[in-house]
Amino acid sequence: METLRFDSRSVDDTEEFLSTAYTPMRIGGPVEDARVRISRHAVERLSVDRLSFGYDMAFDAHGLPGVCLISMHSGTLVDRTGGREQVYGPGDTFLLAPPGTPYRGEVRSARYTIAMFDPALLSGLDPSGTGAPVRLTGTRPLTPAAGRALGSAVAHLRDHVLGDAARPPTGLLVSTAAQHLAAMTLAALPHSARTDPVRADRTDATPATLRRALAWIDAHADRDVTLADIARAACVTPRALQYAFRRHLGTTPLAHLRHVRLQAAHRDLLAADPATATVTDIAMRWGFAHPGHFAAHYRTAFRTTPHTTLRRTDHPAG
Fold it and tell me: What positions does the domain HTH araC/xylS-type occupy (predicted)?
């Protein structure tokens, strides 16, 4: 995992750092006591930054290559991109600007979290399966509830996936978290993806489609799997795949994938040596970053706790 830290009281040094770490920009602020602290944890094209500005800083920046979400903790951020003005404060989560779009505004004595990911993930979640790039067409969540859900997704990435440099996340954990954040972004923000179904999506939602998808998931659950991957393997659109799972199993493709991975984690717990293995390591191996969520899913599926399974008295290693 890549880690980065910056702590300065110099506006010039801050401008140079921000231009290198994010995108070229010009900033303005007080000559003295311009305290800035920034930390970053990143892996592949997924990152979480914590930023603290102890003063009011104006900025005028080039576009960012990735999707950049901001969750505010204190202070305010004023977005003046495109001649409009939007003010965000504590509790708000929003898109700074669509990828590639220059942005400008002002940070006013603020603390906030930035989460950035590859915009290609959005296209992989397009239910129409056209392969066309999905564009985010607005920066503010559609509803307050959608904003809170998006903020929770950012916090999950910050606290449970990229929060510990001493425990780098597995590839499966990273891909699962990135897809979750991308899905929550599409659910929360306006976008260009086609949402209305076509007739073929319903007629393709057959038992044969479901069988192909189930077999492929079983064979690839230990890999980085997207909704689009499963749909391609089943020879249908992502929306038709979702219809098939809902119609014949009463679930979704990604929920079923999570169940298959939960079953795999259960087998690993049964086979592991409790003297050397941990529930956290096994859960992370199968893409479960949050210990509490993993334990809840596990208890629902197996009527016991993962710790009980790992430490049972009839363990083979005993």
Answer: 211-312
Q: What is the pLDDT of residues 142-196, one digit of tens each?
A: 999 999 999 999 999 999 999 877 777 878 889 999 999 999 999 999 998 766 6
Residue 281 sits in which domain range?
257-310
Q: What is the pLDDT of residues 209-262, one digit of tens each?
A: 999 999 999 999 999 898 889 999 999 988 899 989 999 999 999 999 999 999
DSSP states of 169-204: PPHHHHHHHHHHHHHHHHHHS-B-S--S--HHHHHT
Q: What is the CATH number of the domain that holds 53?
A: 2.60.120.10
**Two tokens at 40?**
């970053």
Find, among 184, 167, 156, 180, the residue nearest to 285 by Cα: 167
Cα separation, 15 vs 54, in Å, equals: 15
The amino acid occupying position 89 is G
Q: Which residue from 160, 146, 158 is spatially nearest to 293, judged by alpha carbons?
A: 160
Roughly what angle, to the nearest 10 degrees, separates helices 253-271 and 227-234?
100
Q: What is the C-alpha to C-alpha distance for residues 315 and 272, in angstroms, rounded to an integer?
A: 8
Q: Which residue has the tokens 């303005």?
A: 28
- What's the whole-model pTM score? 0.84
DSSP state of 44: T
Q: Where are the alpha helices (DSSP H) in 100-196?
A: 120-124, 144-156, 171-188
